[in-house]
Amino acid sequence: MTQTLTPGDQTAALRDAGPRLARGLLAAGGVLLTVALTFLGLLAITFVIGRVVPIDPVLAVVGDRASRETYDAVRLAMGLDDPLLVQFARYVGAVVQGDLGQSVATGRAVASDLARVFPATLEMATIGILIGVVVGVPMGVLAAARQGTWVDQVIRVVGLAGYAIPAFWLGLVGLVLFYAKLRWVGGPGRIDLFLDGMVPVRTGLLLVDSLIAGNWAALRSAASHIVLPATILGFFSLAYIARMTRSFMLEQLGQEYITTARVKGVPERVVIWRHAFRPIRVQLVTVIGLSYAGLLEGSVMIETVFSWPGIGNYLTTALLNADMNAVLGATLVIGAVFIGINKGSDLLYRLLDPRART
């Protein structure tokens, strides 16, 4: 039966909607202000780094054989003789407009270079975090449910190995064993050389672009090249996720309501997954978000070992070439990714936990 609102009820509803809308706008404004201030702080840090490192940006442009007149002219053109506050204001204005400067090594705009290399890192890190979540969360739950048994000990050793084994060593061993010896996976790079450039770039994600183009040979090649580095990243991710999941689960399994559920005869599977696991989902959101951001930022070694054309490899090359515009641009993008993932995790946290909305 349909209930018709009276004019008084409609007036009350409109009167309550105003404060709710105001609170929503205020909360959104607070989030935007926090993001803006955090990003401004990130800009300040990158600006200071660019000024304190013992690398002369002018020499990177003109070379060490340039005359003093050329050096002074380029320095003046770059605005390095202006006060630091003026330089910082100019830097902020350029970044806001998407101008990260020119790369000395590639001769292209840094923003264009980053747009080209970042999807490669994003693709590999995304597969890595999926492996970490799909494998790490059940491992952590199982370790907590079997606390003190050999299963728990094995999972804890795996987690410890994820912290102790250097990424470059594991990458080299993986290449020698699975590529050079067994030939199970592709070698360094994103795709076989004879297929490079055969897939039209639409998203920058080679697996997705190959699928869209219907190029199955390229899809198989890209999958064989990404499986090993992504799995290694996933191993480091699952070690952290499994460890944190185990810790959260042990805390929940020690609560009185879990004991009550077991006394009532609730099946152990229901006790673990419905009663104990459900409350820790909110905590896992933050853990997974931080792990994902860490994979995007910390894949430098893996990209170097596998010659992966991502942002980590780009940053390493820029450092070796003293290309400060590229270094600062890559650092800025990585920092922005951290900010975005943290805010996204916070939003998801609020959606999953109604208590956080207050």
Automatic annotation (TrEMBL):
Membrane association type: Multi-pass membrane protein
First-listed, main subcellular location of the protein, grouped into a coarse class: membrane
Record keywords, A-Z: Cell membrane, Membrane, Transmembrane, Transmembrane helix, Transport
Every ABC transmembrane type-1 domain range: 118-349
InterPro entries, per database record: BPD_transp_1_N, MetI-like, MetI-like_sf
Family note: Belongs to the binding-protein-dependent transport system permease family.
Protein name: ABC transporter permease
